[in-house]
C-alpha cells in the first residue's frame, strides 16, 4: 500500500515516499478480493475503497502519517512493508550520490537484492503504483540532473495519489549531495558485504 521512489545521481540522490498505511481486518478471502481490486485500480478514491470494504465486511484502518523515507548519515533510506502469512516483510532502498542498493527483510536474515551506480531510478510499491511511476520516468526522464529527477519523483507521487487510495496525497521528499558510505549504513541494518563505499565509482 505504498510508493517509494529513489534516484541516485552522480552529484546527489533524492527519495520520495507517500505516508499512507492501510490495515485490513476481516475474512481473509474478502481481504484478498479487496486488495486485488485496489491494486487493479478498480477503487480509485477513498470513498470507493471504504464503500467496497463495507460491502465485503472488511474493517479498514487508514493512517497518513507513516514516515517511509529518511536520511541516515548522508544515505537516504526508504522502506515499504507488507504482511505475508503473518510475517512482516519489508524491502528497503538505500541511495547516495553515485550508488544505490535494495535489500529485503523479514526472513531469517536480510538479503541484498541488487545494487547499482549513478543515473538510476528505483521504484518500490504495489503493481499499480509501480506502473504509474515507471511510466512517469519513461515519459519524462531525459537524462538530466538531480532537479529534473526530483520533479519526476514529485510528479509520480502526485499522479499515483490521484489514481489510487493506496497512496496518500501527502508525501515526504529528501535529498542529499553527499557521496556517503552506503555499505556502513547497510551493515548497521545487518546486511554484510561491500554494498557501497565512498570510493564506489558512479557517473
Structure notes:
The protein is α+β, with helices and mostly antiparallel strands and 203 residues long. The chain has two domains: 3-20 and 64-188, Glutamine Phosphoribosylpyrophosphate, subunit 1, domain 1 (4-Layer Sandwich); 22-62, no CATH class. Helices cover 31% and strands 35% of the residues. It contains five helices and eleven strands; from the N terminus they run E-E-E-H-H-E-E-E-E-E-E-E-H-H-E-H. It has helices at 28-39, 46-56, 127-140, 146-163, 182-188; strands spanning 3-8, 13-18, 21-25, 59-63, 69-72, 75-84, 87-96, 99-105, 111-117, 120-125, 171-176. Strands 5-6-7-8-9 form a five-stranded antiparallel sheet. A four-stranded antiparallel sheet has the order 10-1-2-11, covered by helices on one side. A two-stranded antiparallel ribbon has the order 3-4. Strand 5 (69-72) and strand 6 (75-84) form a beta hairpin. The chain is globular and about 50 Å long. The two termini are 33 Å apart. The model is unreliable at 194-203 (pLDDT under 50).
Count of distinct strands: 11
Strand-pairing-aware structural class: alpha+beta
* Biggest beta-sheet profile: 5 strands, antiparallel
Q: What is the helical fraction, as a range of percent? A: 25-40%
Contiguous low-pLDDT stretches (5 residues minimum) are 194-203
Fourth CATH level, the homologous superfamily of the largest domain: Aminohydrolase, N-terminal nucleophile (Ntn) domain
CATH architecture type of the largest domain: 4-Layer Sandwich
Number of helices: 5
What would the average pLDDT be, to the nearest integer? 91
| Beta-strand percentage range | 35-45%
Series of H and E elements:
EEEHHEEEEEEEHHEH
How many whole angstroms does the radius of gyration measure? 17 Å
- Report, as a whole number of angstroms, the end-to-end distance: 33 Å
- Overall CATH class of the largest domain: Alpha Beta
**CATH fold assignment of the largest domain:** Glutamine Phosphoribosylpyrophosphate, subunit 1, domain 1
Shape: globular
Side-by-side strand order of the widest sheet: 5-6-7-8-9
How many individual domains? Answer: 2
Amino acid at each position: 500500500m505504498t510508493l517509494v521512489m529513489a534516484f541516485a545521481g552522480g552529484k546527489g540522490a533524492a527519495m520520495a515516499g507517500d505516508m499512507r498505511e492501510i490495515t485490513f481486518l476481516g475474512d481473509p478471502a474478502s481481504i484478498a478480493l479487496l486488495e486485488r481490486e485496489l491494486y487493479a485500480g478498480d477503487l480509485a478514491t477513498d470513498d470507493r475503497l471504504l464503500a467496497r470494504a463495507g460491502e465485503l465486511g472488511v474493517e479498514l484502518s487508514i493512517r497518513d502519517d507513516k514516515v517511509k523515507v529518511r536520511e541516515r548519515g548522508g544515505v537516504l533510506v526508504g522502506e515499504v512493508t507488507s504482511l505475508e502469512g503473518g510475517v512482516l516483510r519489508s524491502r528497503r532502498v538505500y541511495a547516495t550520490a553515485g550508488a544505490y542498493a535494495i535489500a529485503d527483510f523479514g526472513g531469517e536474515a536480510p538479503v541484498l537484492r541488487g545494487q547499482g551506480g549513478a543515473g538510476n531510478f528505483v521504484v518500490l510499491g504495489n503493481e499499480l503504483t509501480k506502473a504509474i511511476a515507471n511510466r512517469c520516468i519513461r515519459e519524462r526522464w531525459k537524462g538530466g540532473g538531480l532537479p529534473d529527477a526530483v520533479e519526476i519523483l514529485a510528479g509520480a507521487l502526485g499522479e499515483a495519489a490521484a489514481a489510487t487510495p493506496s497512496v496518500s496525497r501527502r508525501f515526504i521528499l529528501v535529498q542529499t549531495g553527499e557521496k556517503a558510505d552506503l555499505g556502513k549504513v547497510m551493515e548497521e541494518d545487518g546486511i554484510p558485504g561491500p554494498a557501497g563505499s565512498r570510493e564506489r565509482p558512479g557517473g
